[in-house]
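Action item from last meeting closed. Structure (179 res):
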């Protein structure tokens, strides 16, 4: 796995072996960013179930200013730290080593891009988006990118965010909501 484009484009990323995390393939990652960007002029990104951190690193590589990554798994946290080190831009990243819900209660300020690839997709995505909105963590026009199994059906509207785009790539489905 590697960073697809931008400042860190082509650099290799480490991933966690086994079934603990499900790394987004380079093909799907490239497709996600082509759907939503592909490049940014600043902004904050929140990667709530960070895994290897590759999506947040890709967002920073493509122009986001700051990223908050949330991961509860210790082995995944170590991989994220190594991947952040590889960027040589550690000051742009903050890793919160905790459960997603706990992080949502601690975060402040609005995010322009939210990346959601939770383990129990549908129920978790709906609850998470509602929580983000309740806490005022979504900037106006924020994009929320949800990666799920292709069989998962998400609602058209969650809280006050609307489904904007949805595409299937192999076994993965990417749904993009706009606040």
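Sequence:
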């Amino acid at each position: 796995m590697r960073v697809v484009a931008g400042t860190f484009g082509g650099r290799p990323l480490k991933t966690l072996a086994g079934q603990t995390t499900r790394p987004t393939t380079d093909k799907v990652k490239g497709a996600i960013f082509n759907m939503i960007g592909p490049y940014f002029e600043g902004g904050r990104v929140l990667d709530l179930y960070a895994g290897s951190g590759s999506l947040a690193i890709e967002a920073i590589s493509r122009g986001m200013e700051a990223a908050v990554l949330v991961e509860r798994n210790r082995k995944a946290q170590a991989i994220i730290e190594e991947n952040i080190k590889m960027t040589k831009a550690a000051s742009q990243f903050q890793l919160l080593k905790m459960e997603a819900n706990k992080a949502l209660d601690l975060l402040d300020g609005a995010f322009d891009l939210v990346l959601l690839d939770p383990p129990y997709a549908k129920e978790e995505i709906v609850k998470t988006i509602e929580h983000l909105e309740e806490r005022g963590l979504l900037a106006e026009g924020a994009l929320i990118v949800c990666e799920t199994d292709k069989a998962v059906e998400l609602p058209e509207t969650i809280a006050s965010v609307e489904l904007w785009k949805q595409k299937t790539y192999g076994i993965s489905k990417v749904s993009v909501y706009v606040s």
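Note appended to the action item: The CA atoms of residues 3 and 58 lie 6 Å apart.
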